[in-house]
């Protein structure tokens, strides 16, 4: 992105406290200790935020209250300039994907931190003992990270009908009640001994409170990892945290409104999906107040550049991965806007021309039906010539009829799709066919609403192929999203050691 101040922004951590207060505070303290700093000024900036949370000590379930508490905390961090969220609560990581899907901030993954520590320090360990609550165990949180093969997750067995770990933490005299000695420690010690009896090679706590009593538990036959320290070190040594592995398309809408709806419809209809969740995430900024592009290019009307750029920036700020602008004429301004953005605009014109070249390799000339602004700006002509294709546009009188079909009182922008507008476009197509054109680009996004892409049969029986750039753009966006999903799946398998 252009025009940065040249100073590398420092990371600013937001630590979600209160979920258990003691464990969260321990992680915060260990983050401070783990920071490589020779003076106070060199420490990273951190915010530790904690509010009374009525469910923090009342049970081991991921309640709705817990989810909303964490989400609100992250939203508050966003407003305070936090760059990375630290979430020292294993239970909350059972819904980390829900959080990632609805926030822009990366969240440092506590289970990934522990997994990374174990693989680095105990490379031969494959039988992993886990001290976790009943809820975390039942949700198989650790199994998703220590995948089988080669790993095997082992939990302590119940003793006289008691879940040793859950009782030690959440029981009436448990650690969450402030009891750091006595029965809770004895229960955890017994759980560690049981894991050792089951042949584990390392024991991993899945509750941040366990680190508080590690000294009281004492030495064990197998190593007991300090999960809090592993998480703190993982966070401060540059691990970026992760955001949702979800591809999001930002759409500059309102140029025009009906064309935007048509584009969205083509995204939905062409996405291979068996359920709602298989569809692509879209962020649409419907801004019909963007000044008319053709009026600016042809008649000296208001400049839409700032409005287009501001809309793109909103999409970028909303964490879109790419931007689609379902307006051919607006692409006359893309070359000025793109250098100022940090994400790419998928150029509707260039992907359409690439589609023409791939689909019709012998093609030499292409008819273009578009606004006068698009024609006079030369954006399609330039894109076509880059692929060895010649643009054929309607003669002035027929171009006026094309404009009437789009902008006229009975045109598509006024809500009409039959009658005079249809006749005007038909006349322009016939004239292009008279010049020997067999492939015609519907180079205004309102035109596919009037005439669908595909084979066009004139009244006299002549045929031409109408190419719909809106459809090409939609399919290109879908291709990017599908490619991202496949790449993300491979990266997950690689990170879990399932492929190499």
UniProtKB/TrEMBL annotation:
<comment type="similarity">
    <text>Belongs to the aspartate/glutamate racemases family.</text>
</comment>
<dbReference type="Pfam" id="PF01177">
    <property type="entry name" value="Asp_Glu_race"/>
</dbReference>
<dbReference type="InterPro" id="IPR004380">
    <property type="entry name" value="Asp_race"/>
</dbReference>
<dbReference type="InterPro" id="IPR033134">
    <property type="entry name" value="Asp/Glu_racemase_AS_2"/>
</dbReference>
<dbReference type="InterPro" id="IPR018187">
    <property type="entry name" value="Asp/Glu_racemase_AS_1"/>
</dbReference>
<dbReference type="GO" id="GO:0047661">
    <property type="term" value="F:amino-acid racemase activity"/>
</dbReference>
<dbReference type="InterPro" id="IPR001920">
    <property type="entry name" value="Asp/Glu_race"/>
</dbReference>
<keyword id="KW-0413">Isomerase</keyword>
<protein>
    <submittedName>
        <fullName>Aspartate racemase</fullName>
    </submittedName>
</protein>
<dbReference type="InterPro" id="IPR015942">
    <property type="entry name" value="Asp/Glu/hydantoin_racemase"/>
</dbReference>
